[in-house]
Amino acid sequence: MGTPGASGSEDCAFCQIANNQTDVEILLSDGELLCFRDIKPSATHHFLVVSRTHIINCKTLQGNDVPLVERMEKMGRSILEKNKVSNLNDVRMGFHMPPFSSVPHLHLHALAPASTMNFKSQLRYGPQSHWFITVDKVLSQLKTRGKVK
Question: Which domains does the chain have, with CATH numbers?
Answer without folding.
Answer: 13-144 (3.30.428.10)
